[in-house]
Amino acid sequence: NKLMLKFRLLDSNSDFPSVNRDLIESTAIKAAKLAGEVILSGYGSINLQNDIISKIGSRDIVTNVDKASQTIIYDTINEVFPDHDFLGEEDVDPGIEASINAISNKVNSSNLWIVDPIDGTTNFAHAIPLSGVIIAYAENGVTLFGLIYDPFRDELFTAWKNNGAYLNNNKISCCLTNNLRDSVICSGSPPNIKSLDACLRGMLTLSPKVRTVRLLGSAAIMLSWVACGRITAYYEADLNVWDLAAGALIIEEAGGIVTDVHRNKFTLTTRNLVASNKHIY
C-alpha cells in the first residue's frame, strides 16, 4: 500500500498543487484521524436537551463536539500551512446567504482548505453511527484533493484530481448498475423547507422506478458510498461547499458524474447536486 501511494503521488498525469502533495495529504489525514478520535470520544454522550445548539430551528444543529473537531482540524492544518485560507462550517453564520457569501469570498484563494468537522451532526447527536469528517484542498476555485473519513468504520476515502479514488489506499470505482430498477438512490432531508420539498418530490418520482430510496443523514457517507459502489446515486438540494467539495472530487475520480440539477459541471459554488455512476446518470 505504501508503494501504491508513492506511485500515486508521482503520477505525471496529475494536477500538481503549488505546495508539496505529500505534505497536503499527510496533514489532511492526520487532521481527519484526530478529529475522528474527538468524534468517537464524544459519541453517545450528547444530552439531547442540554448539549444541542440550534442554528436555525431544530432541523439545523451543532454540538460542542463539532466545534472541538473543527478546532483540532484547524490547528493541525495551521501548524503546517499557516498562510493558507481555511473555510470551516462552524465559522460561518447560519443560513443560505451566509454560506454563499462565505465561499464567494474565498473561492479564488490560491490555497484553501474546506472543512466540515462532523457531517451528519443530527445522526451523531442521536448516536446513529453515520457521519464523517470532510476535508478538501482547493487552489483558484478547483478542488485538487478530497478526503472523507468515517471514524465509525475507520474508512478513509481520498482522491487527487486526475489520479483516481481510494478507500484505505485501495482503488475504488462507482458501481456498474446500468438501469434504474436495480439502483439504490440516496437523498437528504435539508433544513430549508423549500429544499426539503424538492428532495421529497424527487423521491416520489424515483421511488416506483428504483430498487429503493434511502436517506442516510450524511452527505459524507452518501458521497463516499457512491464512489465505492455501495449505492448507485445521490441527489440533494441546497448543500454547502464543505458538504460537497471533497466528495464530488472523489466520485469523479472513481469514474462517476457530479453536476447540478441542470447538468452543469460541479464547481465550488454548486449548491444542488446529482451524483451517480455514468450508466444511470
Description:
With about 280 residues, the chain is α+β, with helices and mostly antiparallel strands. It folds into 2 domains: about 1-170, Fructose-1,6-Bisphosphatase, subunit A, domain 1 (Fructose-1,6-Bisphosphatase, Chain A, domain 1, 2-Layer Sandwich); about 180-275, 3-Layer(aba) Sandwich (D-Maltodextrin-Binding Protein, domain 2), CATH 3.40.190. The protein is about 35% helix and about 25% strand. It has 8 helices and 14 strands. It has helices spanning about 1-10, 20-40, 65-80, 95-105, 120-125, 195-205, 220-225, 240-255, and strands at about 50-55, 60-65, 85-90, 110-120, 130-140, 140-150, 155-160, 165, 170, 185, 210-215, 235, 255-260, 275. Strand 6 (about 140-150) and strand 7 form a beta hairpin. The two termini are about 30 Å apart. Residues about 1-15 have low confidence and may be disordered. Its EC number is 3.1.3.25. Pathway: Polyol metabolism; myo-inositol biosynthesis; myo-inositol from D-glucose 6-phosphate: step 2/2.
CATH C-level of the largest domain: Alpha Beta
CATH architecture of the largest domain: 2-Layer Sandwich
> What is the number of domains?
2
Overall number of strands: 14
Number of helices: 8
Brief summary:
The chain has two domains: 2-172, 2-Layer Sandwich (Fructose-1,6-Bisphosphatase, Chain A, domain 1), CATH 3.30.540.10; 180-276, D-Maltodextrin-Binding Protein, domain 2 (3-Layer(aba) Sandwich).
